[in-house]
Amino acid sequence: MQRLSLIQPDDWHLHLRDGEALRAVVGDSARQFARAVVMPNLDPPVTTVAEAEAYRRRILAALPKDSAFRPLMTLYLTDHTSEEEIQRAAAHPDIIGVKLYPSGATTNSAAGVTHIGRRDPVFAAMERHGLPLLVHGEVTDPAVDVFDREAVFIDTVLNPLLERFPDLPLVLEHVTTRQGVEFVGTAGARVAATLTAHHLLMNRNALFRGGLRPHHYCLPVLKRESHRQALLEAATSGDSRFFLGTDSAPHARRRKESACGCAGIYTAHAAMELYAEAFEQAGALDRLEAFASRNGPAFYGLPVNRQTITLVRESWRVPERYVLGADDLVPLRAGEELYWKLITP
Ligand code: NCD
Ligand code: ZN
Fold first, then answer.
1. Which of 147, 158, 253, 283 is deepest in the core (most CB within 10 A)?
2. Catalytic-residue membership of 247
3. How many domains is the chain partitioned into structurally?
4. What percent of the chain has pLDDT over 70?
5. Which domain holds residue 246?
6. 134 lines ligand 1 (CB under 6 A)
């Protein structure tokens, strides 16, 4: 049997939610990953260090007994975030960055930034403290085609931002386009990107295969095949500025299967299995460890994990649903076979 042992990976972009949903999903991530960067887009959002500390305590309390999983927290940038709050965040050992959601770009982004250019004092403070800005890189202008929103954001927002703040550490989260890959490729060592398993495995046809597929809808939306190829090349290139971030985003089934279904794909149940499949397709399984376990810690200046995990080439069927508190949740590949399996030690 084919086995693949890796240094234990980390998830550099994860949605854990809160309350019952948090308790339902956190074990899936903790089973595979040593650490995860937890996104702050709760309702209401996590905007202060005190709120991030309280959220972190709720995450720790929701973990399975004896879990060593370490949540790395983020603050949600608003029009009102102060420079003092940035300073407090930068000095905090469990806070790793500040998340920029352009207002209206995605799930729970209404409290996000309305005019990015007006937040320059905050970006300057982050640059001074070396605190990374984690970016949802899409413009929100309804006149811009939904498939072009990342590329337009890079031209009109990100490049000018980096011209103003050349030393600001920045992660283009869940990069989905060739333009995004090129942006990172030509930027300096302080600019990186996370890549999801679903954007490595699917193109936009998956949204319409035999009918409308709400469980394949996420933001940024899946793109055409040539972009998926560019993402796979980046992930397997050996360039250490590309690393794993699942963007696993649980939503209740009834909110996805709706006349106005919300954005987000749940992948935490099988994250490493899905990434292994993508890397295997690219003939690059030997590059998976760097992408999943080494590049992220290098960017964030954290130690590489000491434990290992093992994947075996063995098929298993993903359940049709998981429980999500009083609701249920449809995971990616529900009812379908996966070819890699994580074996729990
Ligand atoms: C995320 C969510 O549901 O919180 N949804 C998604 O489609 N990725 C928000 C986000 O990361 O954009
Ligand atoms: Zn996300």
1. 158
2. yes
3. 1
4. 99
5. 10-301
6. no
